[in-house]
């Protein structure tokens, strides 16, 4: 098995690995990834998904991944991560743990819930959710991020929120924010403009060959010393094997003697971006973890300019994503 290097990234020298694992797909019974139903199967009780989460985390640890991303709104992802950390003990001592606040899980462990999560970017929500996160993860929390910060909520200009986040940073937690939607670049730049009020150390954003529009702003964040984490590199399954854009991705990249799978290629392209520090795998099975991990060895050989023709209009891309059903 290839060696995935341990790295320290950003001005804060956050310990990590270039590829990390996100728990959005295994912390709750439904998610908006194409193929999610087939990945999880019918067994989706709390105990079933805790077992699956542990299997995925075991596979990630075995593959050399040392960065794990969770959130308050990912169902019981934080609790599953905590029980895994307890079970693995010293084996997991080198794993960096990130989580997020700003959304609450409201799905009630139902597949047919009318609403699976609700946004609240108020200072009261931050106080409540950091308490909930620490009650589960204790002192293992390394990174805490605003979940899907947007300009319309005013979270990046709320003095009370910024002061609370600055207090967290003073305690040693790297604070950051994640972005979604066609205005990702505007959100990143608004956060950079607020650095004098809040020492943001991490930004997590969507980038993939179908939606590369945030790249210039992410390069600016990287130059400012923030750790740049890429999420949704497989476009919620569209760039995974069998996804509607997978064939186009492989065609643009060219077929070698042993062509990569679409998922490994998409992740490798994200890893190869000069401003990218950590790329998240959203694997829902141990086999997907192993397949995704091959991206690390591909990153130095991929042609980052070969897939520019795949880029879609950001509004159209995000409109299609919003229309995906929770499965």
UniProtKB/TrEMBL annotation:
Pfam families: Aldo_ket_red. It comes from the Bacteria. Residues 53-296 form the NADP-dependent oxidoreductase domain. InterPro entries: AKR2_Oxidoreductase, NAD(P)_OxRdtase_dom_sf, NADP_OxRdtase_dom. This is Aldo/keto reductase. It comes from Egibacter rhizosphaerae.
């Amino acid at each position: 098995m290839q060696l995935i290097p341990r790295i320290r990234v950003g001005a804060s020298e956050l310990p990590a690995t270039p590829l990390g694992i996100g728990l959005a797909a295994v912390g709750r019974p439904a998610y908006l990834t194409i193929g999610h139903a087939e990945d999880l199967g019918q067994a989706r009780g709390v105990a079933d998904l805790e077992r699956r989460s542990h299997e995925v985390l075991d596979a990630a640890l075995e593959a050399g991944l040392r960065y794990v991303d969770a959130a308050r709104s990912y169902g019981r992802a934080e609790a599953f991560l905590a029980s895994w950390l307890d079970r693995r003990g010293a084996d997991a001592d080198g794993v960096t743990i990130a989580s997020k606040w700003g959304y609450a899980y409201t799905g009630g462990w139902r597949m047919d819930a009318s609403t699976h999560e609700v946004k609240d970017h108020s200072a009261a929500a931050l106080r409540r959710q950091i308490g909930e996160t620490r009650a589960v993860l204790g002192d293992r929390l390394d990174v805490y991020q605003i979940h899907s910060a947007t300009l319309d909520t005013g979270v990046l200009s709320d003095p009370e929120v910024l002061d609370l986040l600055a207090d967290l940073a003073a305690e040693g937690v790297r604070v950051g924010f994640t972005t979604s939607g066609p205005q990702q670049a505007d959100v990143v730049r608004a956060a950079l403009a607020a650095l004098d009020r809040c020492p943001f150390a991490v930004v997590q954003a969507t980038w993939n060959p179908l939606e590369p529009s945030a790249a210039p702003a992410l390069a600016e964040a990287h130059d400012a010393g923030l750790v740049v984490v890429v999420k949704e590199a497989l476009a919620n399954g569209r760039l995974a094997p069998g996804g509607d854009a997978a064939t186009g991705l492989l065609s643009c990249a060219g077929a070698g003697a042993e062509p990569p799978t679409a998922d490994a290629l998409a992740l490798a392209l994200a890893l190869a971006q000069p401003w990218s520090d950590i790329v998240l795998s959203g694997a829902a099975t141990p086999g997907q973890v192993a397949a995704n991990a091959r991206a690390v060895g591909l990153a130095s050989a991929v042609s980052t300019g070969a897939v520019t023709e795949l880029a879609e209009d950001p509004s159209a891309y995000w409109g299609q994503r919003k229309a995906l059903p929770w499965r």
